[in-house]
Amino acid sequence: MNYHLYITDTAEKDISRAVDYIDFVLKNPKAADALLEETDQNINALLPFPLEHPVVEDKLLAAWGVRFLQIKNYFAFYVVEESQVTVIRFLYAKSDWVSILRAGVSLV
Questions:
Q1: Range 63-92 average pLDDT
Q2: Which Pfam family, giving just one, matches this sequence (predicted)?
């Protein structure tokens, strides 16, 4: 099956915030560029086999079909619906991502 990729505005903003934080707060533009490049590569690499990555362990989020892909210290959260892969959030792995996703994923 051929899948199409859609990245929500929220996920795009999450990625931008992460890259900006590394670039401007941590003052590490090389690491920021590396995160952006690796994020782009890994998200695009989902398309051939998006179901190979695990569903999150939280029961409610799992019922919604939320899957994740780790990229450095971040998780890219996505859902697969028919022929579309939708990246819904890109969050720091040590954040309270369960609460963040529960609060907003139903609004996507």
A1: 98
A2: ParE_toxin
Strand order in the sheet with 74-81: 4-7, 84-92, 74-81, 67-71
Domain housing 33:
4-107
Largest interatomic CA distance in the chain: 42
The domain spanning residue 60 has which CATH number? 3.30.2310.20
15 close to 54: Cβ distance less than 8 angstroms: no
- Predicted TM-score of the model (pTM): 0.94
Based on C-alpha coordinates, what's the Rg of the chain? 14
If one counts the domains in the chain, the total is 1
